[in-house]
Amino acid sequence: MFTTPSNFKTAVTERSERNDREKRDTNGFTLVELMVVIFILGLLTTVVVINVLPSQDRAMVEKARADIATLGQALEMYRLDNLAYPATADGLVALTSPPASLPSSARYRQGGYIKKLPEDPWGRPYQYDNPGRNGPGFDLYSLGADGAPGGEEEDADIYAE
Fold first, then answer.
1. Which class for 19: exposed (0-12), middle (13-18), buried (19 or more C-beta within 10 A)?
2. 53 or 32: which leads in pLDDT
3. Is 33 exposed, middle or buried (0-12, 13-18, 19+ CB in 10 A)?
4. What average pLDDT does the structure give for the chain?
């Protein structure tokens, strides 16, 4: 059997089209496969979010406590050098530079008591009162996540211990 060029051309074209169809059918993913993958990713994301968010709230409270402890130590060093805590009007800025109300800056530590005042984990400044609510001394605290006095859990005020 001898094939003519036109029959040969038709056979090659049919074979080429069949190969193209097979490639198209095997490439890519079906809609069902994509939906299953998206569903599984959604479940994993939900599990991670449920387990991580409460830990983040606890971490922010613990960071506030650590910052307050550090600021409290700086206030104690200030008191040892200057014989009194900074006035409420001077605030915590007195830890970075000598306040105007300080009688003599000769006792003030060169470079200050801390390099930079931290903000609480919620982006607000720490609060300072002298005298404190329980008499002599100072109150150093954060207003918590809600930024308002009082509150419960992560919204509770965090005071120096």
1. exposed
2. 32
3. exposed
4. 83
